[in-house]
Structures are given as C-alpha cells and as structure tokens.
Amino acid sequence: MILQQLDSYFLLALSILSLVTAVPAPDPNGDREISVYIVPGNRTFPEGIARQKNSPYFYVGSVTTGDIYRGSVYEKHLVHFITGSTHGLTNAVGMKIDCEDRLYVAGGASGTLFAFDLHTKKLLHRFSNGFGLDANATLLNDLDIDEAGNVYITDSIRPTVFRVGASEVNRPTVDLALEKWTDLTGTMGPGGNGIVVTEDQRHLLVANVYAGEIWRVVISSRKVDKVDLGGTGIGGPDGLLIRDNILYSVNAFQEIGQFIRVIEMRPGYLSGTQVRNITSELFERPSTVAFDGNDLLVVNFQYGVVIPVLPFTVVRVPIGG
Ligand SMILES: *[C@@H]1O[C@H](CO)[C@@H](O)[C@H](O)[C@H]1NC(C)=O
Ligand SMILES: *[C@@H]1O[C@H](CO)[C@@H](O)[C@H](O)[C@H]1NC(C)=O
Ligand SMILES: *[C@@H]1O[C@H](CO)[C@@H](O)[C@H](O)[C@H]1NC(C)=O
User: Fold this and answer.
1) Which domain holds residue 47?
2) Which ligand lies nearest to the CA atom of residue 139 in the structure?
3) In terms of pTM, does the model score above 0.85?
4) Which domain CATH number covers 49?
5) What is the pLDDT of residues 185-222, one digit of tens each?
6) 9 part of a folded domain
7) 131 in a domain, yes or no?
8) Model confidence at 22, in pLDDT bands (50, 70, 90)?
9) Is 49 contained in some domain?
10) Is residue 321 part of a domain?
11) Where does the record place the SMP-30/Gluconolactonase/LRE-like region domain (predicted)?
12) Count of domains in the chain?
C-alpha cells in the first residue's frame, strides 16, 4: 500500500523549498561546518526543506508519513517535531516559513495546504482545494510566500496555481478553502513543481517538472509565459530558489545527472542563461534546497528509489560561483 502510494508520489511529486536566510543564525558553540545532517527513519523520504530565519533551525517533511523533522545547522541529527497524521497531513511535500514563523506545508494528494505555528507546533489552518478525496486528482507540490504574506502553491496534476491571501492567515477558522488563482490550461499545463516569487515581488517563476520548462506568471495580470532558456535543457526542474536574480533549479531526474542548475535571469524574467551547475558526491536524488547564508541545504529525497540509501540526509554545499 505504502509502496503503491510511493510509486504514485514518485511519478508525480517533487518540489522545492527554501527560505532565504539573510541574517546569520546565532552560534551556540555549534559546528556550522557539518556537511551531512541525518534524518531519522528508514522510510522517511524527506522531500521539502525550509530554513527558519533568525534561528539555527531548518525543517524537512516526509512524503510517506507527513511527519515534520527539525534540524539545527549546528547539530548532526534532526529530531521528530510534528506528527503530521494527527492533523490529516500524511504526505508532506514542499514547505516554506513566513516572517511570523508559520510553517506552510503542501499536503500532496490531500489537496490541502497546512499551516503550523513553529513556536507552539499548533495547526493554524488547512486550506483545501476540494480534490483530495479523489484518487490522483491533485498533488499540491510546492509553494512560495511573497513579502506581503500571500502564498502561491503549485499542483503537479491540476494545471493551476492556488493562492492563500495574506489576510486569510489571521482568520480564526482552521479549515478554509484554497483559492484557484490562475488556470494554466493551454499555457504551462500540468506538472507544476518548484515555485518562487521574484525579488521585485511582481512575478512567479514556476517549474514544469515533466516538460523541463520554467514559466513566468505576472502577479498583477496573471499572464503566463514560458521562460526562454536559450534552447538548452534543464532536466526535470523540481525545487527552485532565487537570489540576486540567479535561479537555482534542482534536477529531479537521476538519469540526466544529479545537479542544481544555476540560471542567470534577465530583467523581466522572460529569459535566462544557464551559467553553471552545482553538484556533489553527497547528492542522493535531491528534490529541493534552502539557503543557509552562502550555502545551500539540499534534501536527499531519493526520488523513485525503492530501497533507499540509509540514513536519509540533508547535505550542505557552498553556492560558490
Ligand atoms: C493513481 O496513480 C497511480 C500511479 O500512476 C496508479 O497506479 C493508480 O492506479 C491510480 N489510481 C486511480 C484510482 O486512478
Ligand atoms: C527500519 O526501521 C524498522 C523500525 O525501526 C526496523 O525494524 C527495520 O529493521 C529497519 N530496516 C532497515 C533496513 O534498517
Ligand atoms: C550541467 O550539467 C548537465 C548534465 O550533466 C549538462 O548537460 C550541462 O551542460 C551542464 N551545464 C553547464 C552550464 O555546465
């Protein structure tokens, strides 16, 4: 049963996640130089990762159980943090943290976006798109949050970008509807995966993992256009990050190689040039990444692997360049 579920997640899932860490974490005499962090469990398949600002913490979520684990950049071992199934979260995919330390988790096949308070571990909200009870009807994969607190969510099955408005997050009601924000039928189509809000706060860049494409959505007009990458392939783009208009795109497909594409975006974000790859012998089919200062924290999901290499890990690699 779990294997069958896993197969379908592996076919469809993958996302990316991250959190920009502008302020370095205070150092409690720990070891910032740890390059491999250990995720508990032998069927965990950690997919999403988010770095909490102004703290030493980062989080990953299990695709197979929905459990959330917390790591410290100074400690080798992550610890169990939230039991997802208590809240109906059994399939944790992409995740990010807003400026008030709310953790948002894309709930995959549940069609639900979960929001937790990281200080109390309390479930704050479940935003449902209404398709979670039908088999293979939805797969909420990844998300990003703009500076105003609006949340944009991709779906790998439904050609839709969903959205949660910033004001909704402060409502007392736990269970709320997830707004169908932009229909990608006839443009990007299905396959939505990693997503970033550009630094000008005016665009979204969305990965289509199946087509190997990046698409741009203008937030004000919801206009959808394909990004011109100069005709060179980018593999299957899973997680995305952006900083200083450089886009980092994690390749999901092992047969193409284990690397993160580094793409210089031109003004307007309608085109970009691949300038280099980031790779490491520590990669085990990674799904997504988070910034930690001048490093990337890369989560080794082990996409599509039936007998995983244990333990599951998060690895630190320098951004370099
Ligand atoms: C859902 O997708 C999986 C994987 O593609 C497939 O094996 C399964 O039969 C599908 N289930 C339904 C009800 O369509
Ligand atoms: C996986 O974990 C279970 C439960 O802790 C344990 O019984 C089993 O031996 C482990 N399997 C492997 C391959 O480590
Ligand atoms: C990145 O790696 C891929 C796969 O090995 C390769 O095809 C591509 O040319 C590399 N890109 C750059 C800019 O080096």
Assistant:
1) 2-315
2) 1
3) yes
4) 2.120.10.30
5) 999 999 999 999 999 999 999 999 999 999 999 999 99
6) yes
7) yes
8) very low
9) yes
10) no
11) 67-296
12) 1
